[in-house]
Give the backbone structure.
Amino acid sequence: MTSVAVVGAGAWGTALADLLARNGHPVRLWARETDVAESITSRHENRRFLAGVALSSALAASTALADVVRGAELVMFATPSEHLRSVATLSLPVIGPGATLAVATKGIEPGSLEVMTQVVRGATRGSYPVVALSGPSFASEVAARQPTAVVAASTVPKAAQLVQRVLASHEFRVYTHPDVLGVELGGALKNVMAVATGVSDGLGLGANSRAALVTRGLAEMTRLGVALGARASTFAGLAGLGDLVLTCTGALSRNRAVGEAIGRGQTLSEVLAGRETVAEGVVTARSALALAGRAGVEMPIVRAVNRVLFEGRPARTAIGDLMERELRAESD
């Protein structure tokens, strides 16, 4: 058995901790919120972020980060992207010298424009092997033991294999992958594309429009990934196409829901007001556009999402802008 610390008790972190506990591993879960830690420990339910799901009786949570991380052989970060660097930095003094780090957060950090494993590697001074965990996986379905397949990516094969081994179950299949950057970009950029497809759905534009956005969105993701050194084939796999389809079409997608509400006429501030959960596509949209600009890569869907979210461009007009772009070959 492997001792694991899961840092972040949102829906995804809780689902992963529950999976690890059901697999028989000793797990400690860190929650920022006192009520979340108490609910998980005493009621075996995360009433705030994963209500209605019965969690393993072996799972307990704490708000004491050092106590959770100290001594863990595997530290798995699942905090929102905006908090990842600070939480990883706070964890550093108590991470054991032989630990492996895994990152289940998806995003591109504003300012640095780093993907999440780069953020963790920087915060922990490059002292540990780091694994990216990504792929099509709604937390509630994982917690309900629905069949799911994801990817564990690392430049250190033994580290990826460790994450694969501890998470694998009859319902949860994990593939290893060497293309960390491609896996991470797929997981981050698909959230922006999900906002776009949600906007289209909110406008009532139909299945044709959704299919076009998903397909051309994948082309944009691949174009940026290849320009930055990732493999094109990665974007045809679970962390690319698989996660893109799930997030752009699934009823449980938070990013798609945000876009859909905007397509129906709400402002971004109205949509986000009072939301407990994070829609990473909103945070990532600006970073993705900045990263594309730095790489000299054209991403018209990402640009359209930014114009709608942050520049007041009417959603229907932004869709029209995409349709009226200069004609070209599909392979360009």
About this structure: Residues 181-323 form a domain with the N-(1-d-carboxylethyl)-l-norvaline Dehydrogenase; domain 2 fold (CATH 1.10.1040.10).
